[in-house]
């Protein structure tokens, strides 16, 4: 299979053009294209160009309103609520961001919820964005149900990731935690299914609750929660914040993020930001630096987020190797 090396700017332009041709407004297309660029920059291919044909398909079939104009309300001094209006999550998050971060600085802590939303891409990037603003970012997003409770076989919650990013005092992130409630992201199993490859035996269960290495059977069954009941508990916490609190549909009711079945997923997100200055910024940064040093100073240990940063440096320098078939598919959409 042939491949072409693309710059990140070329990747962003390709994604933006495809989304605009599919029917997304220029602003909405640009917001999602930036997310695509960031995913490819960090080597997270499952959320990069591979998703662009799905985004375009969903705009065309009506699962996403590509021309939606999000609505923003500040219901309390430290509370911002965004209605994505069945559009992409990224422009809805962007629309609420100024009020949200200003509220965090004014109040010391603030939260923003998003409802009637969609897949928000790499959750850690939103947390890292808060860290870049000098805030401690804690983010949650739920997804269509794919994880059954331990001992059960019917999915109740999605892979429901959470992310935490901490400022480094220099405009970046000292560490970034980004993990789902499942052993792996569902997109990893979808990639294996498309390639006709088996999955690892501990990744998922079939529709009878039995471990399976067949990606197609896994997609019909449920994802395995990371750490058993503890992983399910983390996913349940995310469900409470990103679905129940945000006023979004439940994971059980959300239509899939892939395929054309069902209407808009109607999922949600929840973001919390803390301003360290409200709690003693100097002492906080010293403590974070010491914590990072305690991890990185051990041979073989890695600070959360370090692997992504290493990929980022290499890809920003060398570009991204993209399958020509995928490029042709996206250009066909555009």
UniProtKB/TrEMBL annotation:
One of its GO terms (molecular function) is oxidoreductase activity. It comes from the Bacteria. The keyword Oxidoreductase applies. Keywords: Oxidoreductase. Pfam families: Ldh_2. PANTHER family: MALATE DEHYDROGENASE (PTHR11091:SF0), OXIDOREDUCTASE-RELATED (PTHR11091). Belongs to the LDH2/MDH2 oxidoreductase family. This is Ldh family oxidoreductase.
């Amino acid at each position: 299979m042939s491949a072409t090396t693309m710059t990140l700017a070329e990747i962003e332009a390709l994604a933006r053009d495809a989304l605009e041709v599919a029917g997304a407004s220029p602003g909405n297309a640009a917001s999602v294209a930036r997310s695509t660029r960031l995913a490819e920059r960090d080597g997270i291919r499952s959320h990069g160009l591979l998703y662009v044909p799905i985004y375009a398909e969903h705009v065309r079939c009506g699962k996403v309103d590509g021309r939606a104009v999000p609505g923003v309300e500040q219901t309390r001094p430290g509370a911002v609520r965004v209605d994505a209006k069945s559009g992409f999550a990224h422009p809805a998050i962007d629309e609420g961001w100024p009020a949200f971060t200003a509220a965090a600085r004014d109040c010391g802590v603030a939260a923003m919820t998003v409802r009637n939303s969609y897949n928000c891409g790499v959750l850690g990037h939103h947390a890292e964005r808060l860290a870049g603003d000098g805030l401690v970012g804690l983010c949650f997003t739920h997804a269509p149900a794919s994880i059954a409770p331990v001992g059960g076989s019917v999915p109740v919650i999605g892979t429901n990731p959470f992310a935490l990013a901490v400022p480094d005092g220099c405009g970046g992130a000292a560490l970034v935690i980004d993990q789902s409630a499942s052993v792996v992201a569902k997109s990893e199993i979808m990639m294996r299914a498309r390639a006709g490859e088996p999955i690892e035996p501990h990744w998922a269960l079939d529709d009878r609750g039995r471990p399976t290495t067949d990606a197609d059977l896994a997609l019909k069954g449920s994802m395995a929660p990371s750490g058993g009941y503890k992983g399910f508990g983390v996913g349940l916490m995310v469900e409470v914040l990103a679905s129940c609190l945000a006023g979004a549909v439940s994971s059980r009711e959300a239509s899939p993020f892939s395929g054309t079945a069902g209407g808009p997923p109607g999922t949600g997100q929840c973001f919390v930001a803390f301003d360290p200055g409200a709690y003693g910024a100097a002492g906080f940064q010293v403590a974070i630096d010491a914590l990072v040093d305690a991890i990185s100073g051990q041979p073989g240990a890695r600070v959360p987020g370090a692997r992504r940063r290493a990929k980022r440096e290499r890809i920003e320098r060398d570009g991204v190797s993209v399958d020509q078939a995928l490029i042709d598919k996206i250009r066909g959409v555009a």
